[in-house]
Amino acid sequence: MMLGMPAAVREACASGRRPRPRAVQRVLGIDPGLQRTGYAIVATRDGAPEYRLIEAGVIRLNPRHALEQRLVDLQRCLDELIGTHRPQVLVCEQLYAHYKHPRTAVIMGHGRGVILALAARRGLAIVSVGATHVKKQLTGSGRASKGQIQRAIAAALHLPRLPEPPDVADALAVALCGLRMQAAERRAAPGAKGGRR
Questions:
Q1: CATH number at residue 169
Q2: Collapsing DSSP states into helix, strand and coil, what is residue 160?
Q3: Would residue 57 count as lying in a domain?
Q4: Bridge partners, residue 51, by sequence
Q5: Among the ranges given (19-23, 26-30, 38-42, 190-194), the one the predictor scored with the smallest mean pLDDT
Q6: For 110-139, what is each residue's pLDDT tens digit?
Q7: Could you give the residue numbers annotated as active site?
Q8: Per the domain annotation, does 28 fall within a domain?
């Protein structure tokens, strides 16, 4: 008799089969910026709605450095993160361009381009998400406030307090949105359990 073992493991041992290890998926969420880039690495097992925070933080770039040097620094820092944590997917927030500040979107596009090129070179799947879609995925409303999003993140990751600073909170939201989108795609795939046939 095997006490203290989960039923699935006990059954597998009794039948001589080994339990199948559950696949861990790691996602790197990015809130791009050329002074501060928020990042978050979140994991789930087999697409289950249980998420685990691996690491989150801010890459701070020196605003006094030339644009090209900041892009090199951003690429180097993200490359180290990817090498350390080995995510399979990069989820990056799409750029929002305000008609009064078109130059900001152009400059931010440089940083986002470096991020996407690095992810492609490293073989990561890439998901781009808009801010409204992120809000809707996490709270059910595309017009959710920052506070509502922070509370949704804290609840999903079982955090003891609201995530801060905003760059980290945004990266966490992007990562969670990407995980939920992928789980929904798997459920809807032909042949998936409960999916379309």
A1: 3.30.420.10
A2: coil
A3: yes
A4: 44
A5: 19-23
A6: 999 999 999 999 999 999 999 999 999 999
A7: 31, 93, 167
A8: yes
